[in-house]
User: Fold these one by one.
Assistant:
Number 1:
Amino acid sequence: QVQLAESGGGLVQAGGSLTLSCAASGRTWSNFKMGWYRQAPEKERELVAAISWSGGATDYADSVKGRFTISRDNAKDTVYLRMNSLKPEDTAIYYCNAVHKVIPSLNYWGPGTQVTVSS
């Protein structure tokens, strides 16, 4: 069974840090681009950060550049999102995503993890 499982969400004060993890299982994950998306109440889901299979290419939303870092450990089939200097506007449900770089129909989502930043 293909599965993406996020963990590490929670409640943190503004200025604090959290690290999210996404454990992928159920298939071979080579050639998959991994990403973190978020969705705040009454807002559309947006890309936060993405990383290539090799880890050599990353992409960030302007709103998180310099504060968030995406990384992956292919030996563990896990992708991470380190979030520093958190702001109340970072409050959202964070979703892990995996999409094949050649076959985009191979597209998987995790159930999400809540991140709440208090002011």
Note: The chain has a mean pLDDT of 95.
Number 2:
Amino acid sequence: QVQLVESGGGLVQAGGSLRLSCAASGSITSINIMGWYRQAPGKQRELVASTETGGSTTYADSVKGRFTISRDNGEHTVFLQMNSLRPEDTAVYYCNAHLRTTYWNIYWGQGTQVTVSS
């Protein structure tokens, strides 16, 4: 059974920083893409950032220059460094991974709340 466990959310003032972590565990044989999504109240879940095994990264326009995604392939862990946080970054942040056990599949974490006060 695969689990994605997130940590690092919390309450921060505008302009502050947070670092999210997500560790994947289970009978994992390979991971392709790991990323972060977020969902604010009343809004659809959206991609924040993702990274592929080869090192390429993708960012939402709204976080470019402020957020950095990184990955420890050996530990099946992905990080999201969030700087210059804004109230509009407030959301539940979900870790996502496209990985293989016996078959390739997409897995989600349980989510971690990030709240940015003005």
Note: The CA atoms of residues 26 and 47 lie 24 Å apart.
Number 3:
Amino acid sequence: QVQLVESGGGLVQAGGSLRLSCAASINIFTINTMGWYRQAPGKQRELVASILSDGSRNYAASVKGRFTISKDNAKNTMYLQMDSLKPEDTAVYYCNSWWSTSKGEYEYWGQGTQVTVSS
């Protein structure tokens, strides 16, 4: 069973920074897509940022220029550096991984980590 464990969430003032980590129990080098999602109370889960196996990255418009997604294949860990945080960034942040093989598609989620930004 694949495990994704997030860490690094917490309470921060507006304008501050946090770095989230997602540690995987498998080799992430060949994972097609890894990403960070978030879900605020009463809202749907949304994609924040994603990184492909070739290193290319995508960001939601609301975080572009403030958040940076990265991964360390040697440590099997993905990161989300969040700068210039705003109260509207408050949410539970989830790590996601997806890949496909000749046997099918696989998708896993972490348990989530709470990020709270105070004004």
Note: The mean pLDDT is 96.
